[in-house]
Amino acid sequence: MRTAIDEVGEWLRERLPGLAEEHGVPGVAVAVDAGGRVVEAAAEVLSTATGVEATVDSVFQIGSVTKALTATLVMQLVADGRVELDAPVAGYLPGFREATVRQLLCHTAGFEGDVFTDTGKGDDCLERYVELLADVPQIFEPGRMFSYNNAGYSVLGRIVEVMRGMPFDRCMRDHLFTPLGMTHAASDPYEAILHRAAVGHLGGRPAPVWAMARSNAPAGSMLAMTARDLLAFARAHLADEGLRAMRESQVTLPDIGWGTAWGLGWALHDLPGGPVFGHDGNTIGQSAALRIDPGRDVSVAILINGGDRRPLMKEILGRVIGSPAEPVPDPAQRLDVRRCAGVYLSSTSRTTVSGDGQGRLWLEQVPLGPVAEVGDEPYRTELLGWRGDSLLPAEPGRGPVAFLGDDGQGRARYLHTGRADVRVAGRTEA
Asked: For strand 205-206 and strand 201-202, is the pairing parallel, antiparallel, or unpaired?
């Protein structure tokens, strides 16, 4: 007798090649776990240059899904009484700026988070990286709001190193990969090459480099694995009551389509079928998604190496877990051009929001630094009314943006797209 998980497996095997072709995805691997039973499928190729077939044993980079593994290593130390969530980070890394371990875990530490400085390939790279953070700007007071912070997770990785007395990648292997039986998990390119390894694609072509800097490894610059191994990690979070605290809400998110709240390493989603937690990840031409439905004991991992990832992931997640409703513009929502117009800056983008003579708002974003180097392109789109201070880009595939805070003159202080970009003083662009 066929079960629901059997039907999902059959659907994946039949539908995945077509999905990949429809959305220009070079290669994809998917695994679904229902009550401990796993079905998996893969389609297309690991690299368009070599034509090597993608299989269920292929490893893909998981990007920022790595953050959930890094957070788990920290929570193991918390369980052992060696780290306290509300203790200052300086207690573990002397001289570090004002922030607590909890604030790093839930992205509320408030300092500039997109710092991708390469401090080398040696075992001292995290130590050297953390020292550089003394000079990055503080965007808001710690604990005040959510702003996605890659750098904060490298700091957490350094705390793990210090408390364990060994390099971060060894901590990952000794305390997660080996105990959980994750046999196809690679911490770096040297390990990945021992497996069938996917190559990222940009503009339909293989990316010129495979991974980003080792100094960002705890945030998601290198880790690669099979979809099946990623589900072994998810299964641990369903089975271990000691890890349940990681999916408890720590901070409510702005209305930007990223979920409802953030826990200690997990994004939290309120879906029609009940609460779901998970994480997404992107590296150089590779993307990943992990979703876990504790109420139904179901998890799904999706790994791809380029192309239009969003619709592919949406169809699979919608079939297996469920998806939030697509946001629809609300013509009744009036746009406050004066509040929103201005120039907003971060280390990775410069965004200009301006009004026109018809009372419409336009957003123009120019990537800066490393994100521009790996293929992000400038774009311009109209902003449409949606929910209060959250507006919808008219361009398909772009998520909501929120205008938050006050600069003291009735204008928004931050443009929030997951990260809080700061208004440039004196620039209104109205």
From this structure: antiparallel
Q: Read off the tokens for 240.
A: 């271990």
Question: What per-residue confidence (pLDDT) applies to 236?
Answer: 97
Query: Is the separation of the CB atoms in 163 and 155 below 8 Å?
Result: no
Give every residue of the chain whose pLDDT is below 70, as ranges. 1-2, 373-375, 426-430
Which one, of 296, 257, 298, lies nearest residue 280 by Cα?
257
Beta bridge partners of 201: 206
> What is the Cα–Cα distance from 407 to 415, expressed in whole angstroms?
12
Size of the chain, expressed as the number of residues it contains: 430
Neighbouring residues of 168: CB distance < 8 A, sequence distance ≥ 6: 126, 157, 158, 160, 161, 217, 218
73-115 confidence digits (pLDDT tens): 999 999 999 999 999 999 999 999 999 999 999 999 999 999 9
For domain 1-325, which architecture applies? 3-Layer(aba) Sandwich (3.40)
Q: How far apart are CA 216 and CA 167, in angstroms?
A: 13
Three-state DSSP at 132 gives: helix
The alpha carbon dihedral of 213, 217, 221, 223 has a sign of positive
CA–CA distance, 310 with 267 (Å, rounded to integer): 17
Please state whether the predicted TM-score (pTM) of the whole model is above 0.85: yes
- Give catalytic residues, as residue numbers: 64
